[in-house]
Specification:
mainly alpha
Length: about 120
């Protein structure tokens, strides 16, 4: 899973959009014309041992969505970056999202693709 995230982060950064939390969101919104910008950091609980029933329910729902047996949550996030930057076919993205989440996505083909893309 860590490799999947690292690969997605690499590919999206190459495309010019970042999946990591940005510290300059407020400034970006102001420059786009928003005037009453208020930032609040919201953390998503990922484990059920939070001590709060509400957080446990949120964690359960989040994990349920991300562990969709059809892998659609992962396909949706990965399709454009994996096809445009890493050179995967849509079928390969589907395969990686279904079967590769538990394993490593690293391969010679991936490394060559990243080097060729100049990431």
């Amino acid at each position: 899973m860590r490799d999947w995230y690292d690969d997605l982060k690499t590919a999206t950064t190459h495309l010019g959009f970042h999946i990591a939390c940005r510290q300059d969101t407020g400034a970006l919104l102001h420059s786009a014309g928003f005037v009453d910008v208020c930032e609040e950091i919201a953390k998503i609980p990922l484990c059920k041992d939070t001590g709060s029933k509400h957080d446990e329910e949120i964690a359960m729902c989040f994990r349920g969505e991300m562990s969709d047996p059809a892998g659609q949550a992962y396909q949706g996030m990965a399709m454009q970056p994996f096809t445009q930057v890493l050179g995967y076919t849509p079928e390969r993205v589907f395969e990686v999202c279904i079967f590769g989440r538990r394993g490593s996505l690293r391969s010679d083909q991936f490394v060559r693709g990243v080097l060729a893309a100049g990431v």
